[in-house]
Design goal:
By secondary structure, the protein is mainly beta. Helix content is 10%, strand content 42%. Belongs to the glycosyl hydrolase 43 family.
Amino acid sequence: MLNVTRTKRRYIAAAGFILLAAATALLLYAWNRPEDVPASTYTNPVFEPVLADPAVLRGDDGYVYAYGTEDDWGDGEGSRIVPVIRSKDMTEWEYIGEAFEEKPAWKDGGVWAPDVVNYNGNYYMYYTMSVWGDQNPGIGLAIADSPAGPFVDQGKLFVSEDMNAYSIDAAFFLDEGTPYLFFGGITSGIFGVQLSEDGRSIVGDKFQISGVGYEAPYIIKRGGYYYFFGSAGACCEGADSTYRVGVARAESIKGPYLNKAGTDINYADGDTILGGYFPADETQPFVGPGHNSVIIDDNGDDWIVYHAVDAGYPKFGHGATRRPLMIDKLIWDEGWPSVEGAVPGTGEKEGPAFARGR
């Protein structure tokens, strides 16, 4: 009887241990499952006074970083050469400084439209060097070992004369281990080119993915399709800015990229998913949204990150268009992304979700 009792006790203890382990596992799952990741709230704009042409990424330290075009913020401090901001939730941002300790010197001009990616164990920034009206802008590369920088310039990658295409607004995309860079302007169309494995030079010939009318390309891949985001219209005319974001998709990284009607955007427009309010007023103040990035939160939702113009405060005192940072959720329906109302969100909204402790 004693041996039977001891055996029963062992079974009971073992069963209790298994039940405890199972309960712990269920609690951990409940704690970490995506639907339990808390969402923040936000009101556009999420950062002021300006962060134009924003690039965004999640750093290995858990912060979300955003980088913008060189701009004079009108505060007497002069131009910020690629301002860097960061956030834990994409709704409250802190300015942490400039990306460069020394401005790239291989060409005269401003440092515009950075795209920053985590690649080859470092942070690569592809950026534009240009001035207004420049007929030969170019794209350079800088590298850092931290998303906060400082980024060390590696020099010119190419200029427009090298590519026989207007070379601004670089966007990096890694496709099954092969790196590509997309670039282009409204007057020439959007192009892609393969990069070398180290990301420091181009391989082969460029290929065209859109006709004239778009700039600021951005590529993501979802559900077997490659999605092109591009900006059209006037970016920097203050309250008269007509910037807007169009979308098309392809089954190959090299295209053809088709709109919903099935027409190649080399010959037609993409589908506009984000435009301005016309006419703007106090309740609907934003015009000229565009030059976007996309980031995924911890619930797996996509967020479009872009700049826009507040028609009530469209320019700095020195005359430059003031373009604060905006975010909105991308809504997916039958394989196509959209933004609610196809306009910048106003009022308080539910924001991105990020895991506890990040």
